[in-house]
Amino acid sequence: MDTIVKIDRSCPFDPASFSGLGKDWSLGEEDECSLSLTEINLTNIRLETCLKDKEKRIDGNERIKRLKELGRVRFDIKIFQTFWKNKDLIPQEWKNKVDGRTLFVSFDGTELYGPDGRLYTVFLFWSGKRWRWSPGSIEGSRGFNEPSAVLINTS
Fold first, then answer.
1. How much is the CA Rg of the chain, to the nearest whole Å?
2. pLDDT at position 154, please?
3. Span 16-35, average pLDDT
4. Span 58-114, pLDDT tens digits
5. Do residues 122 and 28 touch, judged by C-beta distance below 8 A?
6. How far is residue 108's CA from residue 100's CA, in Å, rounded to a whole number?
7. What gap in Å lies between CA 147 and CA 51, rounded to an integer?
C-alpha cells in the first residue's frame, strides 16, 4: 500500500529557529526539484551511496556531484523536517543496520553554512532507542552506511 507524505511548503526552513542549529547557521544551495515537491510517495524513495566499484568512501561533494549527474532529486531539509516532526512516517527499514553499522540517511538537497563557514547537510538515524539527527560536513567522507535519500524516477 502506498503512503503519501505531504510536505508543507507554506513557510521556508529557518535554520535560526530550528532546535539544534541556531542563528549562526544559514541556507546554502538547494535542489530546486526537491523544493517543488509537495508530497512524496514513500515507495518512491531510494537510498543511494553513489559508490563505484571498489570504492569504500567518497566525500560529500563528490557524492552530490554524482547525484546531480544521475539526475536524482536530492531530498531537501523541509522533507527532513517533515519526517522529524512525524517520526511515524520514517520508513522502518531506515532503522536497519548495514553490515552491523547504523544507517545515517543524508538529506543532500539542502546545504547549510555552519558557524565555522563550512557546508553541511543533515543526517537522520536510529540510535537504537529513538530517532536522532546531526549535521555532517559535506567535506567529510561518506560510506556504504551513509546514503542519500532521493526520489526515484517514476516516469
1. 15
2. 59
3. 92
4. 999 999 999 999 999 999 999 999 999 999 999 999 999 999 999 999 999 999 999
5. no
6. 24
7. 9
Residue 155: pLDDT band (50, 70, 90) is low
Sequence-ordered strand ranges (E) for 32-147: 39-41, 45-48, 57-59, 73-74, 104-113, 119-126, 131-137, 141-143
The three grid cell numbers given for residue 146, joined into one nine-digit string: 551513509
Query: Residue 143 contacts by C-beta under 8 Å, 6 or more apart in sequence?
Result: 49, 51, 56, 57
Per DSSP, the three-state class of 84 is helix
Question: What's the predicted TM-score (pTM) here?
Answer: 0.94
Give dist(CA 92, CA 43) in Å, integer. Answer: 12
Q: Which residues, in sequence order, are CB contacts of 79 under 8 Å at separation 6+?
A: 7, 34, 37, 40, 107, 109, 149
Region label for 99, one of left (φ > 0), alpha (ψ between -120 and 50) or beta (otherwise): left
Classify the C-alpha dihedral 57-131-42-17 as positive or negative.
negative
| pLDDT tens-digit map of 6-17 | 999 999 999 988
